[in-house]
Amino acid sequence: MRIDILTLFPAMFSGVFGESIIKRALAKKHVEIYIHNIRDYALNKHKQVDDYAFGGGAGMVMMIEPVANCIRKLKGERKYDEVIFMTPDGEVFDQMKANYFSTLSNLIVLCGHYKGIDERIRSLFITREISIGDYVLSGGEIPAMAFCDAVIRLIPGVLNDETSALSDSFQNGLLSAPVYTRPSDFEGHKVPAVLLSGHDKEIEKWRSEQSLLRTEQRRPDLLK
User: Fold this and answer.
1) 22, 25, 32: which is closest to 1 by C-alpha?
2) What is the CATH number of the domain that holds 122?
3) pLDDT one-digit tens code per residue, 128-167
4) Are residues 31 and 135 in the same domain?
């Protein structure tokens, strides 16, 4: 998979993409990530990427030309499956969407900033608008990081144990069951005996029951 990220703040990604699972995925060539500074595609020497909104009002708007120039350059070099805009008014990102995006080959991810982007960017270039929740952040960079992490970990070969991802919360529409490790007794708080029994069928039954119970208690909306 190849992911091209368009941003005004390229340095924000170095820490997140330089650690843990994404770092290993990059090292193993399971994914390629390219960060593009939108300012490099600005029209003037001042690298201007924002302007006042027509009709007035508070806040600046991301200009269409720098974004259009960058997207057109990339699309002139290869075919992209989706051009994604991270925005709070997009469709809410979930595990099923992560599963879908993980099957694709080439993605462009646009990070917005300021009051928003010129609406013509959306109508001309964007194929999917994705939100990570009903709240507003300073820009699309952090949502883009969350999006990439959720997608990349699902690419075959990225996780050492690929079955681990299949038991994550939301994969089957439910939250995952509780997990425990050593010691089996911590200050009188013991691991459920069934997990120490060695009976695979009983353990699986317990996990299924706990998964449903946890979902009923914490996310009943998932059961509707």
Assistant:
1) 32
2) 3.40.1280.10
3) 999 999 999 999 999 999 999 999 999 999 998 766 666 5
4) yes
Task: Give residue 224's pLDDT.
Answer: 83
Which residues neighbour 4 within 8 Å (Cβ) at sequence distance 6 or greater?
33, 34, 36, 74, 80, 106, 107, 108, 109
Structure tokens at 204: 């699986």
CB atoms within 10 A of CB 206: 18
Distance from the Cα of residue 87 to its chain's centroid: 12
Same domain? 11 vs 99: yes
Burial class (CB in 10 A: 0-12, 13-18, 19+), 76: exposed
- Residue 19 falls inside a structural domain: yes
Q: Residue 177 sits in which domain range? A: 167-223
Radius of gyration of the chain (CA): 21
Measure Cα distances from 32 to 23, 35, 95, 109, 148 in Å: 10, 10, 22, 13, 11
CATH code of residue 190? 1.10.1270.20
Please give the single-letter amino acid code of residue 83: V
pLDDT (tens digit, 9 = 90+) per residue, 34-87? Answer: 999 999 999 988 999 999 999 988 899 999 999 999 999 999 999 999 999 999
Is 16 in the same domain as 93? yes
pTM of the model: 0.88
Structure tokens at 1: 């998979």
Q: Which two tokens mark 168?
A: 């994550």
